[in-house]
Design goal:
By secondary structure, this protein is α/β, with parallel strands linked by helices. Helix content is 31%, strand content 23%. Among the domains are: 142 residues, Rossmann fold; 100 residues, Luciferase, domain 3, CATH 2.30.38.10; 99 residues, ANL, C-terminal domain (GMP Synthetase, Chain A, domain 3).
């Protein structure tokens, strides 16, 4: 972990007198929990819905899970998948796997048959743990039976032999049911009897900080999701640096994060809270009313709602009363500059943070600071963490650009993942010879080294030969008084090659028309940037990955509409 302290003046090192020294105290995912259990003991560590664990209680249950995994034959470096909604079992088996040196693979709970079958085989899963909690109408048992032919007919659930997943030994059901072909909770817990706590700790002490701790899969927008193996150092050091230096977490904080545990936006804050002795609070299903109740009842001091689809749903809900939430000292949100300015207007008495990152560079590499002025928070994502390098390069030439100039964001440092799993061609395309990774994001850097995220390269439109950034149009649309969220995509056009289409979610009780939205843009941006079409969409219609709107599905939706109207 990263620790900053002031060195005491010493006679043996006179040059170090009165110098502030910073050094890295790196540790593994499992050791972090062991240390925090010793430091914080019976203090509340995690709240998931109505389930609560203290620091020492979480360690105890994680060791138990580690013993059960060892009893199933999991070895160091084996891939252990977790397919669950947010629940206490998820947290316990994730840490249990980390303690024994397994490669934990959190799986997007929204994946369907084809995506899940691909991931199970691609990740070389040996064990898959799941739940019978039905979240958002997702039945994991039904999906697994569909994507793993022969599972329900297996004679011995501890030694599966499935043609489509030859390395998968077992599927474990951590729920109240006992589906055919799966190891149920009772049997999983009995398997711990053949292993001792000492066995778990012996394995824990052998883990190196550059061993793989976790393999997240990117959401996949135009192709199959890609595995991103991440080391213990990249995972823990990045999280602890951000939460210590940027969030300034203490043992008094109660940190609310509604995001799914299979996403870095949940894993990293959880690690930061474990380090700081803060309480991490989440819920199984994100619903505005339930979110408001949990924020209030748990007396949360920090909101990591992060995405406008979540934050705006809370602020627009009739149960939201800002006078009840004065204890929330800071909010984290990622949006366009105008979208963030609007949030500041709606939450004028709170401090705000903005961030930049992606799975491949450790989840996050930059944060603004709580004391940054509103315009800094709205227009930049802050400087990179100590030890992480960010460079903005010309899209075509590949050379660094000047201050304020836009280009591709590249990163290098301890935070980087170890390269795409089983995809050497993609790795050769993404890394240069000096170890820099190309994120595929467009950005700029100000004179103080703060990074501004300006969209994805793939979000650039080419309208009649002119480059147009989707984020520029989205930012303008979100200043319209009736617009809550706007997303812009490119669609084919016979004359201009591509033209922009805007998908818009309106604020509650607001109305407008396609013409009014288009007219609103006239005179504010160049005419070729004005959306050719506007389509209205409700909050529950956005096509989502883990946390992001999948723009390619919006393009598919528009193409289907055009096809239907022409037929």
């Amino acid at each position: 972990m990263v620790d900053e302290r002031v060195s005491a003046p010493t006679e043996s090192c006179p040059k170090l007198k009165r110098l502030e020294m910073a050094w890295c105290e790196a540790t593994t995912f499992g050791d972090l929990l062991v240390r925090s259990a010793e430091r914080y003991g019976s203090k509340e560590a995690v709240v998931v819905q109505d389930d609560r664990r203290s620091f020492e209680g979480l360690l105890e249950s994680a060791i138990q899970a580690g013993r059960s995994l060892l009893g199933l034959g999991v070895g160091r470096g084996d891939a252990v998948g977790i397919l669950m909604p947010n629940c206490i079992d998820f947290v316990e088996v994730m840490f249990g796997g980390a303690l024994i040196g397994a490669r934990v693979v959190p799986i997007n709970a929204r994946f369907k048959d084809r995506e899940l079958a691909y991931l199970i085989e691609n990740a070389d899963l040996t064990i898959l743990l799941t739940s019978d909690i039905v979240d958002q109408h997702t039945d994991y048992v039904e999906i697994l039976d569909s994507c793993l032919p022969g599972l329900s007919e297996a004679s011995d659930p501890t030694t599966l032999r499935l043609d489509l997943a030859p390395k998968l030994k077992s599927v474990v059901m951590l729920g109240n049911s006992s589906p055919a072909g799966m190891v149920d909770r009772e049997r999983f817990e009995l398997l711990a009897g053949s292993v001792t706590d000492e066995d778990v700790h012996r394995l824990r002490t052998r883990i190196a900080i550059r061993d793989i701790a976790m393999m997240m899969y990117t959401s996949g927008t135009t192709a199959d999701p890609k595995g991103c193996p991440t080391t213990h150092e990249a995972l823990v050091r990045t999280a602890v640096t951000g939460c210590r230096n940027c969030f300034e977490l203490t043992t008094e904080d109660r940190f609310w994060d509604p995001l799914p545990l299979f996403h870095m936006s949940a894993i990293l804050p959880l690690i930061g809270c474990i380090d700081a002795g803060s309480t991490y609070i989440t819920l199984t299903h994100v619903e505005p009313g339930a979110s408001i109740r949990q924020l209030r009842d748990e007396a949360c001091t920090f909101s990591f709602s992060t995405f406008p689809t979540v934050t705006n749903a809370i602020l627009d809900h009739p149960d939201w009363d800002p006078k009840e939430f004065t204890q929330i000292r800071a909010w984290n949100n990622v949006s366009s500059p105008d979208g963030l300015r609007e949030l500041h207007k709606r939450l004028p008495d709170s401090r705000h943070l903005n961030a930049y990152g992606c799975t491949e560079i450790g989840g996050v590499a930059c944060f603004t600071r709580p004391d940054d002025p509103p315009e800094t928070w709205a227009t930049t994502s802050g400087p990179p963490f100590d030890g992480i390098e960010i460079e903005v390069r010309d899209i075509e030439a590949g050379q660094p650009v000047g201050v304020g100039e836009r280009g591709l964001i590249w990163s290098r440092g301890y935070n980087l993942f170890e390269g795409y799993h089983k995809d050497e061609a993609k790795n050769a395309e993404s890394f240069d010879d000096d170890g820099w990774f190309c994120t595929g994001d467009i950005g700029a850097m100000d004179p103080e080294g703060r990074v501004s995220y300006l969209g994805r390269v793939k979000d650039m439109l080419k309208v009649g030969g002119e480059n147009v950034a989707a984020v520029e149009i989205e930012s303008l649309l979100q200043t319209h008084p009736s617009v809550s969220i706007a997303q812009v995509v490119a669609v084919p056009d016979a004359k201009y090659v591509e033209v922009p289409v805007a998908y818009v979610e309106l604020r509650p009780d607001c109305e407008t028309t396609e013409k009014e939205v288009i007219d609103y843009c006239d005179g504010k941006i160049a005419r070729f940037k004005i959306p050719r079409y506007v389509r209205f969409i409700s909050a529950n219609e956005w096509p989502m990955s883990a946390t992001k709107i999948q723009k390619f599905r919006l393009q598919d939706r528009f193409a289907e509409e055009q096809h239907a109207s022409s037929g």
